Amino acid sequence: MLFAIHALDRAGALPTRLANYDAHKAFLSDTSRFGVKIVMSGPLVSDDGQTMIGSLFLIEAPGRAEVEAFNRADPFAAAGIWEKVTITGFLRRQG
């Protein structure tokens, strides 16, 4: 099953995001221990097209519990970067 993780940064989180970026990338490089696969991911940006304001993931997983565990373990979550995280099931129609 596919899940979308939509995570919006708290106000003023950009310096913390940048300081934890390498740890976040390393974490994403092997998701096998959570039983999930990243189909697509990247930062959400403001209307200027550059300033990072959140994260978006499309995850393939057996169920919601695995996605929640994966998201909780992300260094960005541990650093308190995200103010609001929404995890929603997703049905692929195109692409």
From TrEMBL:
Residues 1-90 form the YCII-related domain. It holds the Pfam family YCII. Coiled coil: none annotated. Belongs to the YciI family. This is YCII-related domain-containing protein. It comes from Bradyrhizobium centrolobii.
